[in-house]
Amino acid sequence: MGKGGEEQLNGSEPLKFDTFPAWAKDVRECEEHFGVSVERGLSSSEVVTRHQIYGLNELEKPEGTSLFKLVLEQFNDTLVRILLAAAVISFVLAFVDGDEGGEMGITAFVEPLVIFLILIVNAIVGIWQETNAEKALEALKEIQSQQATVRRDGVKVCSLPAKELVPGDVVELRVGDKVPADMRVVGLITSTLRVEQGSLTGESEAVSKTTKPVEENADIQGKKCMVFAGTTVVNGNCVCLVTDTGMSSEIGRVHSQIQEAAQHEEDTPLKKKLNEFGEALTMIIGLICALVWLINVKYFLSWEYVDGWPRNFKFSFEKGTYYFEIAVALAVAVIPEGLPAVITTCLALGTRKMAQKNA
Question: Which residue in 266, 341, 305, 322 sits closest to 83, CA to CA?
Answer without folding.
Answer: 341
